[in-house]
Design goal:
The complex is a heterodimer of chains A (120) and B (107). Chain A has no helices and eleven strands. By secondary structure, chain A is an all-beta fold. In chain A, the strands form two sheets. In chain A, strands 2, 4, 5, 6, 9, 10 and 11 form a seven-stranded mixed β-sheet that branches. Chain A has a four-stranded antiparallel β-sheet with strand order 1-3-8-7, with no helix packed on it. In chain A, a hairpin with a 6-residue loop joins strand 4 and strand 5 (46-51). Chain A is globular. With 107 residues, chain B is mainly beta. Chain B contains no helices and ten strands. In chain B, a hairpin with a 3-residue loop joins strand 5 and strand 6. Chain B is globular and about 35 Å long. Chain B starts with a strand and ends with a strand. Classes of the chains: A mainly beta (120), B mainly beta (107). The A-B interface holds A 35, 37, 44-47, 50, 59-62, 95, 97, 99-100, 104-113 and B 32, 34, 36, 38, 42-46, 49, 55-56, 87, 89, 91-92, 94-101.
């Protein structure tokens, strides 16, 4: 079964840090670009970051550039998002999503998400 | 690239036809436009890629069309399970962007 399972969400204070993880199974992980997409409570989808299949290319939304770092470990079929200098605006459900093909393709597989709450 | 979806809310009855619009702030290749469905408490589901190709397992009552700056998702006969929020997405240039969503609700 093709599956993505996120973990690492928590309640964190403003200015704090957090590391999200996404475990992939059921497909050839190191063939695929991977993404993080977030959704604040009651709001729409916001793409956060993408990493290419080998990790050589990374892209970020302006809202997180310089604060978040995406990475992957193909030997562990895992994707990560290191989040620093968190603000209240980062409160959201964070989804891990697989690119259908190349980096320039839609997201065909999604996890169920992990919740990040930034609050004092 | 900003994607603007309309209407914000579409109130229809089961069996009716739904037509959802997605307008881009600049022209995009049709191969870089997709659609997603999201139900409450669930992750988004990939429906359409390259503007008009159905993703794996998507029923043929869902269809996409369009080019340039104007794209459309059509659901020919609404089933009870189709009432949800729908998002368009462009993935041809960074940052990848989503529209704000159209909610299809039961009238």
């Amino acid at each position: 079964e093709v599956q993505l399972v996120e973990s690492g969400g928590a309640v964190v204070q403003p200015g704090g840090s957090l590391r999200l993880s996404c475990a992939a199974s059921g497909f050839t992980f190191d063939d695929c670009s991977m993404n993080w997409v977030r959704q604040p409570p009651g709001k729409g989808l916001e793409w956060v970051s993408l990493i290419s299949w080998e990790g050589g290319s990374t892209y970020y939304a302006d809202s997180v550039k310089g604060r978040f770092t995406i990475s992957r470990d193909n030997s562990k079929n895992s994707l990560y998002l290191e989040m620093n200098s968190l603000t209240i605006e980062d409160t959201a459900l964070y989804y891990c999503a697989k690119s259908q093909g190349s980096s320039w393709s839609g997201f065909d597989i999604w996890g169920q998400g992990t919740m990040v709450i930034v609050s004092s | 690239i900003v994607l603007t979806q309309s209407p914000g809310i579409l109130s229809l009855s089961p069996g009716e036809r739904a037509t959802l619009s997605c307008r881009a702030s600049q022209s995009i290749s049709s191969r870089n436009l997709g659609w997603y469905q999201q139900k409450p408490g669930q992750a988004p589901r990939f429906l359409i890629y390259a503007a008009s190709s159905r993703a794996t397992g998507i029923p043929d009552r869902f269809s996409g069309s369009g080019s340039g700056t104007d794209f459309t998702l059509t659901i020919t006969r609404l089933e009870p399970e189709d009432f949800a929020v729908y998002y368009c997405q462009q993935y041809g240039s960074s940052p990848w962007t989503f529209g704000q969503g159209t909610k299809v609700e039961i009238k």
